[in-house]
Amino acid sequence: MNLFVNEQLLAQTTSLAPYFDRGLLLGDGLFETIKVENGRLLFFDAHYQRLKKAALVLGMNFSLAMELLKERCHQLIRANQLESLTASLRITLTRGSSSPGIDIPEEQNPTLLIHASPYINATISPKSVYTTNIRRNEYSPIVRIKTTNYLELILAKKQAVEQGYDDGLLLNTKGAITELTTANIFMVMEGKLVTPPLTDGVLPGIMRQIVLDIADDLNIKSLEKTVYPKDIPQAAECFVTNSLIEIQNIRSINQHHFVTERAAKITQQIKDGYVHYKEQHVKHSTD
After folding, report:
1. Residue 14 has pLDDT above 70, yes or no
2. Same domain (yes/no): 88, 134
3. Which terminal CB of the chain, N or C, has fewer other CB atoms within 10 Å?
């Protein structure tokens, strides 16, 4: 496999990270994961805009034009012979190297790494979810951007698996539900689609927004509403979203079981709507 590092296409065996790269030493970096189907980068523009906005929040130098970044991604897909496959493409941006310490250097030379490989969805059946004791800080300026520091989420996943579940649910400092380790969460309560608001410490997922748009198109009432663990028994259906799994049913959270996948009518409406939404995106996309 090949990688794109800054402006060079390199073999994966190439030594990549300088010792003083802040992404390696401090987690001072961002990333985006994009699903690729038959050579097309799904919702690339939205991913690019989120990366650009996050870089601005961190004061990170990122000036690469969208079309140039897209072309590099396509070049990598071709180099890795992924044009006819479903693939996962990750764009990683770090602040680059600096002297030891946490001070941000006056002159930044960011590192841009693009990696792509075949994607195999290993989670076909609905997941079981465990509420972990890891807390998301809803006041943190970085909780709503995709940084390269995933230690909290790694620990939450570890805790859930050790308890015999597939994934972990994180609460915020007020005890409200935020998201799973790598996915936004939706529940169907009294016929309405409910998802935690961004202000509760939630990542603004690309698929999360797409689902809200689809619900609006289908006249399904949706609410961005603070939800607590005590509210879970009120939910009949539950699903999670991210750019790779897209939309996936949840079987249970702790001891509460949701309706079966076949009986999850609103979830299925959203899934069907997404198929049409994606077809329209591909039809009008310049990828």
Report:
1. no
2. no
3. N
Domain CATH code at residue 34: 3.30.470.10
Band of pLDDT at residue 139, cut at 50, 70 and 90: very high
CA torsion angle 78 80 83 84 (round to 10): 160
The residue whose two tokens read 């939800």 is 227
Residue 160, pLDDT score = 97
Asked if 86 and 104 sit in the same domain, the reply is: yes
Q: What is the DSSP string of 66-126?
A: HHHHHHHHHHHHHHTT-TTSEEEEEEEEE--B-SSSSPPPSS---EEEEEEEE------SP
The answer to whether residue 287 sits within a structural domain is: no
Summarize pLDDT for 165-193 with one digit per residue, the tens. Answer: 999 999 999 999 999 999 999 999 999 99
- Residue with the bigger pLDDT between 52 and 13: it is 52
**Both tokens of residue 153?**
């989420």
Q: Are the beta carbons of 250 and 129 closer than 8 angstroms?
A: yes
What does the alpha-carbon distance between residue 119 and residue 249 come to, in Å, rounded to a whole number? 19
Domain that holds residue 107: 2-118
Q: Is 158 found in the same domain as 38?
A: no
| Percent of the chain residues topping a pLDDT of 70 | 97
CA distances from 238 to 183, 249, 261 (A): 12, 6, 10
